[in-house]
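Q: Okay, next protein. This is Putative hemin transport system permease protein HrtB from Paenibacillus pectinilyticus. I've checked the sequence twice, so it should be correct. Can you predict the 3D structure?
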Amino acid sequence: MKVISLLWRQIWHRKTLSLLTICSVAITAALVVFLMLCSQGVEQGAEKGYGPFEVTIGAKGSASQLALNTYYHIGAPTGNIHYTVLEDVRKNDLVDAAFAMTTGDNYNGFPIIGMEPGYFLTRYGAAKQMAHGTLYGKLGETIVGSYVASSLGLHVGDTFVGAHGLIKGLDEDADGEDGAEEEHHHTFTYTVVGILPPLMTSDDRAVFTTLDYAWAVHESQQSGTKDITAILVKPKSLVGAQSIKTTFAGYNNVQAVYTSKAVADVVNVVDKGTQAVKFVTVICVVLAAGSILLSLVAAVHERKKDVALLRLIGKSKQFIWMSLMGEGVILTLVGLIAGLLIGHIGGYLSREAVFAYTGLQMQAGTFLPGESLLIAITLLIAVLASIGPAIQAYRVDPLQLFRS
């Protein structure tokens, strides 16, 4: 009799308990994989989220809020600063490149962002060409992120009108928007001239247009002044970044922040929030280990006679130990494989919903660095959970058992 055949019969004999064990392991593994995908998305988003722009300049307020709004298009801006600040930044010898950004409107919930065209070349390089169409060049022309285009079915040549505010359906400013400006929003038409390729950043879910769109749409509110939301600065060196920050932080109603530090502060908050989820995951792992242990303990009394018989007919110790411990390992391995597949499939199916609400890109289907550790730990738990019942069954005296 082959050991695999014996193990299969043992598992099938207790199919209900075996199925519950497999399910508990699969659910635990799937949850851990999904958390890994989210964690990887946060790390990649933090790393790729701001590109080479080590310094960000905007209105005084929360540094994290400024970084989130500028690079991740989340939340409201801290306010506006005058265009002359950008002119001063570009005159600084320590600045390699600087681009202004304006925001405040949306199209179907996606932010409309005024951005100087040079931003795309500086951040993504010449390798990232337009998927379709060309870059905008005049007022009213837009390019849209790949996610926006696929979600709304936009194509080159389509036209649309925006809405005031950063939230879909918000047609009035918190300070009150006069009727003339509101009417202007509904008559100002945008034309799609290009669609960006997938960039794997939050720019995939944004609409970009010329910097002066905000001055044209909000001209009644701005009274002819030129205000911008933020300045993205690429310094020539890290030492230069410190000098740039110090210089422009001294301006009235202006803050200059290290982008990496502001993003790191947000990531730290997210990491603290995931501790509770990790605690639940640990509980699931303990329950899965307990399920394996209970499954094997429940089978000990049934298997004592089988083990005694195997010993009497002269089966080797290796064969007997494999028959005793193999069941737990096989159940765990099947549950583990199922869990890995469920975790990646779940991540793949939910990736668009997660990206739409959080901006996180989940790379489902790729082997994660932590998965090898997950496999090793899970199989180790299976072996440890199998040792106790196996020793208990093996220690039975076969002659004494049959005499009784």
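A: Here is a summary of the prediction. The first strand starts at residue 55 and ends at 59. The first helix runs from residue 3 to 13.
Q: Noted. On to the next one.
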